[in-house]
Amino acid sequence: DGSLQVQGRIEFLDRDGFSTRGVGTLKIILAGSSSGGSHAESSWESDLNDLETNGQYYDEVTRTYLYSLSLDEVGDVPLEPSLHVRLVLPDGRILSDKSDIHVSRSRSGSDDLDD
Q: In terms of Cα–Cα distance, which of 86, 81, 85 is closest to 102?
């Protein structure tokens, strides 16, 4: 539909390294510097404690959670973005990870997300 989106998959592993579902509050943040040098940030949050919500985002084939973070305009895409993922478990423990995203910028000013 022409809207800008960052999509990705999150896989949770148990202590033996097997894919598993997650429970808790999941927060995903796209952050980095804007073209003006200030900090830019967009976020998405989901309550995976809710069984209906958990099932809505979980893909049984890939055993991952698929998320989509919508951005309002090209200016919302940071120059050197990174994704921060944080899951707060029901007992208060926190699981987190971060991944950098490569953005190639064409001469026409549009952005292509490569990763």
A: 81
Pairing type for strands 94-100 and 4-10 reads: unpaired
For the whole model, what pTM was predicted? 0.74
Query: Whose structure tokens read 């990174």?
Result: 82
Question: Are the C-beta atoms of 94 and 87 separated by less than 8 Å?
Answer: yes
Q: Which is more confident, 42 or 54?
A: 54
Query: What are 36's two structure tokens?
Result: 């003006």
d(CA 26, CA 55): 14
Residues with Cβ within 8 Å of 9's Cβ and at least 6 positions away in sequence, in order, are 59, 62, 64, 65, 66, 67
